[in-house]
Structures are given as structure tokens and as C-alpha cells.
Amino acid sequence: MKPLTCMVKNQQWPLAREFRISRGAKTQADVLVVVLSDGHHVGWAEAVPYAHYGETIESVTKQIRDCVKQLTTTSTPSDLANLLPASAARNALDCALWDLMAKRDNTPVHKLINHSAPQTKITAQTLSLGSIEDMRQQAAEICHSPLIKIKLDANQVIERMQAIHKAAPTSQFIIDANEAWSFKQLTQWLPQLKALNVALIEQPLAAGHDEELINLTPEIPLCADESCHTSADLSYLKGRYQAINIKLDKTGGLSEALNLLEQAKAADLIIMTGCMVGTSLAMAPAFLIAQHAQFVDLDGPLLIANDRLFPFSFDNGIMQPMPMQLWGGNSNYLNRELMNLLPKKYLM
Questions:
Q1: pLDDT over 90, % of the chain
Q2: What range defines the domain where residue 61 resides?
Q3: Which CA distances in Å does 172 have to 49, 85, 110, 295?
């Protein structure tokens, strides 16, 4: 058994415009790209360290470098659960291993996991938090999108939504409060938001402080985001939320995301697939989960100024299947961007 060769690269991707949520703003996406090689084939993946969960580029890089020392050419994604907690680091390694196995076995990842080939999906397009007029203008620019996601804090919620609804009257809306509301505000606003075509509300209350949601019957389904990382959280979420948001940087990769998907479906929860702000490479494995989700929010590539060489394509919120050269395809598909990224020692 030979050790795997690993490269970890930090990349900065400028955003098309400032992206603001209730906790702050950013002007670029800071991502980590992990490349794994068995000496013959190469797999790669992207993860986004998230400060809200105590992650930094440096800490996640160290986790990856420490963990990969224990991996060999026979390692599989299932080996990672005993080596790393659910995190951006495990996500990067998990998804890179899936890509490597697809190339090695000459079989696309969707077949390795016994899923059908990915199909077109509607994805939400996200409005950054801003003034009422700014958010109205953002909504007007994408008014033909079937599904729009809106970042809100606890200020002028109804006024903002009225302006957005007027600008995009035929769209459905997901509101993402990022833990910024109180229970009183939530129950006060629910009837009005229902009338404004809001179909889902993400994480209105702070994670771990949502006891008041128990046995609430909301007019709009409530979706656990910060409160839901892995399948181990499902027992806690029961009775509090009607939906969960599956993000691979929280689950620690595609492997646990698939497990969480199956257990959540068995619990009759609404499934949403989400993402951090990243490139099409980060969206690719999540798109396999999206095939089984009622709500999809994988518009990260639309928030950055430029995307990767083989990106997802979007048409008014319709997300086309990923190019096989991007990630997860068989060995017949070469990615020139990946090859150009690698030192010669990786190309054996």
C-alpha cells in the first residue's frame, strides 16, 4: 500500500458584488482545493472553511495535511469518518477521494453511489442583504427566476419582502435569517410572509436556542441550517423543524451527506441542498444530493466574478447538469485546469 500524494492550494475568487448576510459581508470567496493522486490517477475537490464554525484556511489546511498522512492508495471515503470530524477538511478529502475513485474505476461517481445520471434542477438565486431599494433592484434583475433566496436580518423584514415580491411577483422565496430572529418576531411575521409567496424559512432562531419551536405549526416550513450538520442531529431537530439544509462543508463530504439524505427522507423531512460561496467545483458533488431535494440553493458560482474552466451553466435559475470534466467523471474526461494546476510530479 503506497501513500497518496496530496496537494492543498488556497484560492481567492473575487465576487461579482459584495455579499452581505446578517453576520457580515465578504468581497471574495476563500476556498481550499485538495488534489489527491495514487500515482496514476488524480482526483480533486473544493471546500470552504467557515469562520462561524471556528475554521480558518490555516486550520483546515493543517487538518488535511495531518489526515492525509494516514491515507493510502487503497483508502476510501468511508475511512475518513474515523480520522476527522464533520468539517470542511473532511469534505475536501472525501470529495477528492470520490473523484479519484471515479477516475481509477473508470466509472462516474453517480454510478458508484447507485444514482441515476444528474438532471436539470431549479436552484435558488440569492439576494444579498441590503437596503430596501437595493434588494428590490437585485430582485428585479432576476425576476424571471422561479426561486429566489433572500438574506435578511431582523430589520424591515416585511418592508423588504413587500418590495422584493413586487419586483418578482411570480417567484417563490426562501428567507435565510442566519439565526437573527426571535421567536416573537418569527410568529408575528409568518402570516404576512406566507402571503408574500415565501415557501421556506431557514434558521430563524439561533442554533441551540430553538426550544420554542417545539410543536409549533408554522404557516411556512422552517429549515434547519446551522442547527443541522450530520445525521446525528436529526433526533434533536424532530419537532422543531420541517426541513433540513444539507451542506457538504457541514456534513464532511458527500458520504455523510448521502447518509443524512436517506435518514432525513425516512423521517419525512423536506430536503434542501445548500452551499457556501464557492466555485462550480464545490457545487459538483452537492448536485448529486440536489437530485433528491425539494429546494436547491447551489448558486455559489453566480456570486463570483469568474468561474472554473468547466463550470455549471445557469439559465434564469435553471441549473444544467455538470460537465463531466469538472468533477466525478470517468477517466475519459481530462480537466485542463486541474492539469495546469499540478506540478509535474503529480503527472506520473
A1: 91
A2: 5-107+330-346
A3: 30, 36, 29, 11
- Is the separation of the CB atoms in 125 and 149 below 8 Å? yes
Q: Which of 98, 116, 107, 119 is nearest to 257 (CA)?
A: 98
Angle, helices 183-195/157-167, rounded to nearest 10 degrees? 20
**Which amino acid, residue 121?**
K
Please state, for a pLDDT cut of 70, what percent of the chain lies above it. 98
Residues 135 and 204 in one domain: yes
In a domain, 116, yes or no: no
Residues 297, 157 share a domain: yes
Q: What is the DSSP letter of 145?
A: -
Find cell 490555516 and name the residue.
Answer: 58
The set of cell numbers assigned to 72 is: 493510502
Neighbours of 169 (CB within 10 A): 11
When pLDDT is averaged across residues 161-187 and rounded to a whole number, the result is 97
pLDDT in tens, 73-117: 999 999 999 999 999 999 999 999 999 999 999 999 999 999 999
Bridging pattern class, strands 121-122 and 318-319: antiparallel
Helix (H, G, I), strand (E, B) or coil at 66: helix
